[in-house]
Design goal:
It is built from 16 helices and eleven strands. The chain is α/β, with parallel strands linked by helices. It has a domain of 216 residues: Aldolase class I (TIM Barrel). Strands 8-1-9 form a three-stranded parallel β-sheet, with helices on one face. The protein has a three-stranded parallel β-sheet with strand order 2-3-4, covered by helices on one side. Helix 5 links the parallel strand 3 and strand 4. Helix 9 runs parallel beside helix 10. It is globular, with a radius of gyration of 20 Å. The structure holds ligand V47.
C-alpha cells in the first residue's frame, strides 16, 4: 500500500530512499498545494532523524549590531538608517566591549556581529572591533560579517575577498553568518536589493571563506515578492556550492517581517509557508547538516513545530536582536536556557547545547568548556582537515 496520498509524492519518497537528489521540478511540486503539509513534513522528518536523530541544538549567544547606518536601501529592511537619520547610531569601543563583558557574564559561547555599511566608517574600524573583542574575550566565538559586508570591505579597500577574510581571521574572526543571501535570482534580487553583492559575489565570498577554513551558515529570505521557483532555485545554488566546499554548517530560512519596511503592504508569511519551506529545505539540501528554526522570526510555537518538519536547531538565547524586532517581530527579546530546553522537550526532542561549530558544550552555570577539546589552531585549520573531524552528515 502506498504511504503517500499523491503518486508523485510517493515517487519522491522512493527517490529519497534510493539516495537520489531532488531537482527543480520536484521542489516546485513540493511547494504546490497538491502536497499535503503533514505528508511533506513526514518525509522531511525522516531525513532529519537520519541526520540528527532527536537532537535539537541551541547555543547561548548575544547579538551585536555595531551600527545601523547603511549605504544600501534594501526594501525589506527596517533596521537600516540614513547617515543623518536621528535613529542612526554607531557604537563606540566602550559599548562594544560592554557587550563582550555581558556575553562573558552570562556564559555565552558566541557573539553574532552584523550591521550596516556605514558611509564614513573605514575598513579599519570593522577590523578593529573584531580585534578588541577577541583580545578581551578570547573564549567568545565571533561569528561576524555577512558576505555583503565582506563585499563592501573589498569595494572600500580594493582588497580581494581572500585578503579581507585573512585580515579578519588574524583579528579574531571565528566564522561567518549567512545573512545577505536574500533571494539569489536576479528577477527578485534586482527589486529588493539591487545594489548590493549579487548571487555570484555572495557565493564567491562563502567559497573563499570555506577555502580558508572558516565555516559559515547560509540563509534565504522568503515570504515577500518571490515565488516557489525563486526559492527552489536559491536552494539549488546553495547545494551546488556545498557540493564543492562542504563549508556550510546550517541553513536558516528567514521569514519576512514587513512592519516598518518599504514592503509593509505585504502580509507576513503564514505558518503554513514557514513549515513547508523548512521541510523542502531539509529535503533539497541533502548535503547541509543542520536546518535552523529561528524562533525570533518564526515565533516559538512555529519554531517548536518546525522541529517535526525537518529542523534540528533552535538558534540560541539571542540577546539584543534588532533586525527582526525593528521589523515588527513580536517574539521575546531573549529566551533563557530553561525555556529553550522546555520548548524542545515539549516537542519531543532532546536539547543539546552546542558551540558555533556544533561541538557539545559542557556547562556549569556560566562556566563552560567543550566536551571534546580541540587545539587552538583548529579555528584556522584548512577546511579539508576540519571536515574530517566535524560531525558526520548522517548519524545512526
Ligand atoms: O540578510 C532583514 C534578514 C538577515 C528583515 O547565520 C529580514 O546563524 C525578515 O542572516 N524580515 C540578517 N528578515 C540575519 C541573518 C541571520 C539570522 C539568524 C541567524 C543567522 C545565522 C543569520 O536578516 C538579512 C536579511 O535576510 N532580514 N530584514 C525583515 N524585515
Amino acid at each position: 500500500m502506498p504511504s503517500f496520498s499523491h503518486p508523485r509524492l510517493e515517487q519522491i519518497a522512493e527517490k529519497l530512499e534510493a539516495g537520489r537528489r531532488l531537482g527543480l521540478e520536484d521542489g516546485l511540486f513540493l511547494y504546490s498545494p497538491e502536497v499535503h503539509l503533514n505528508e511533506l513534513g513526514r518525509l522531511a522528518h525522516q531525513v532529519r532523524l537520519k541526520f540528527n536523530a532527536r537532537r535539537t541544538y541551541y547555543n547561548i549567544n548575544v547579538h551585536l549590531n555595531p551600527t545601523n547606518v547603511c549605504v544600501y536601501r534594501c526594501s525589506f529592511c527596517a533596521f537600516r538608517a540614513d547617515l543623518r537619520d536621528p535613529r542612526g547610531y554607531v557604537m563606540d569601543d566602550e559599548q562594544i566591549l560592554a557587550r563582550g563583558a555581558e556575553a562573558q557574564r552570562i556564559g555565552a559561547t558566541e557573539m553574532h556581529i552584523v550591521g550596516g555599511l556605514h558611509h564614513q566608517r573605514k575598513y579599519d574600524w570593522y577590523v578593529h572591533l573584531i580585534r578588541i573583542l577577541h583580545d578581551a574575550y578570547p573564549q567568545l566565538h565571533l561569528k561576524a560579517w555577512t558576505a555583503v559586508e565582506i563585499h563592501w570591505f573589498c569595494h572600500m579597500t580594493g582588497k580581494t575577498a581572500q585578503e579581507v577574510l585573512e585580515d579578519m581571521i588574524e583579528a579574531g574572526l571565528g566564522s561567518m553568518p549567512g545573512g545577505g543571501a536574500e533571494i539569489f535570482h536576479p528577477q527578485v534580487r534586482h527589486q529588493i536589493c539591487e545594489h548590493k553583492a549579487d548571487a555570484d559575489q555572495w557565493l564567491h565570498i562563502h567559497r573563499t571563506a570555506h577555502r580558508l577554513g572558516l565555516r559559515t551558515t547560509c540563509t534565504m529570505l522568503y515570504g515577500h515578492i518571490e515565488d516557489a521557483y525563486h526559492r527552489v532555485d536559491h536552494l539549488l545554488r546553495l547545494r551546488a556550492l556545498q557540493d564543492e566546499t562542504g563549508g556550510f554548517l546550517t541553513f536558516i530560512p528567514l521569514a519576512f517581517h514587513p512592519d516598518n519596511t518599504r514592503l509593509s503592504h505585504l502580509k507576513k508569511p503564514s505558518a503554513f509557508l514557514d513549515l513547508r519551506t523548512i521541510a523542502i529545505s531539509r529535503l533539497i539540501l541533502d548535503n547541509i547538516p543542520h536546518i535552523k528554526a529561528y524562533w525570533v522570526m518564526l515565533g516559538v510555537g512555529t519554531a517548536q513545530t518546525a522541529l517535526s518538519y525537518g529542523a534540528d536547531d533552535f538558534d540560541g538565547t539571542v540577546r539584543h536582536e534588532r533586525i527582526y524586532h525593528d521589523a515588527g517581530a513580536d517574539t521575546p527579546q531573549a529566551l533563557d536556557v530553561s525555556s529553550i530546553c522546555h520548548l524542545i522537550r515539549e516537542a519531543g526532542f532532546e536539547p543539546v547545547e552546542r558551540d558555533t561549530l556544533y561541538r557539545p558544550v559542557v556547562r556549569n552555570g556560566t562556566c563552560w568548556h567543550l566536551a571534546h577539546s580541540e587545539p587552538d589552531s583548529a579555528r584556522t585549520q584548512p577546511l579539508a582537515n576540519k571536515l574530517a573531524e566535524a560531525e558526520p552528515l548522517t548519524s545512526s
